[in-house]
């Protein structure tokens, strides 16, 4: 039974228009933990316990709807420091094989030491959580973004509203640049104005939520009309700077703009050292949440996970340390299970027997190198997702190979959002 205390805000990918998640929020303002704790003199541990319990209930409520998109939930920095163990109740269930995104906000009780927060977030990651920083540019500075390397960085509504102001716009661009350097996509919250949305998209904002994109809803699902409206708004916009190739810099000694060739008979300039080509943004900027199951899951559990997540290309099997140990491709697994006696043969057997080794790629790998990895190896697995891993080997998500191809083939102006054809009703003679 859904918990009536909570409402849901769809989060849209500005590059595709798709709804990629729902943020669970209190339905009423006075139900927020920060409001309840205000002026009551609660210490950090009491606030953390209440916040952890509320977050667990919020995720359970979203899952009770059978939502087909990943869940995002707010937690305070106090909770990460003092009650993160209680958050493990969100993990381990087969009802939702995609780990929730913890949107870590500023502390409610007192300032949290940055070094302690970084260590606590690293532990949550090892357990399998995805991590977001909520309030970057206000609550958290760019240095924390660089240290944490979150899965997403969220901008506060007041920063998004002030995008057209000189000072606020500079702060937003600083957050975007740091996030781009570490491969973390940036999301805008509270978006209510089309002009600001297009401005945010132009500087590289990847995700957005707010009244303009459907606002708060009673169920964890997006308005079907929002995607078409969003694509119509952004289809004429050029690709953000993050997706463009670096400009060619003039090389001394070679003809080019501002550097004419020497006159005939003149002394040529000495040969110049070739300008190094930038490596490009890291691949984790393209990562999407992975559908994961423990490595001892059985075939029927894998089949149910694929049914619950129809948009996923496959399942990543992970060990107790959340390191990928196998990959179940959707097409190959379902062919095995759909064959004659397939369900009887595989339903109760370990899914690992159907798995292939995961095609892993370090989260810091440049896009062009990730493409080379995607093209190498067994041609039969050429369309398997790449599994993005952190330096410690833990799973950070997957990158669909189709998205790598899209970035590599399409010109910059064409690799932004494209309109989706509307199916036409069949005509009868």
From TrEMBL:
One Pfam family linked to the record: EAL
Cross-referenced SMART domains: EAL
Stretches for region Disordered: 242-282
GO terms for MF: cyclic-guanylate-specific phosphodiesterase activity
InterPro entries in the record: CBS_dom_sf, Cyclic-di-GMP_PDE-like, EAL_dom, EAL_sf
Amino acid composition bias (Low complexity), ranges on this chain: 242-251
Biased composition regions of type Pro residues, renumbered to the chain: 271-281
Domain EAL: 1-230
Protein name: EAL domain-containing protein (Putative c-di-GMP-specific phosphodiesterase class I)
Source species: Pseudonocardia alni
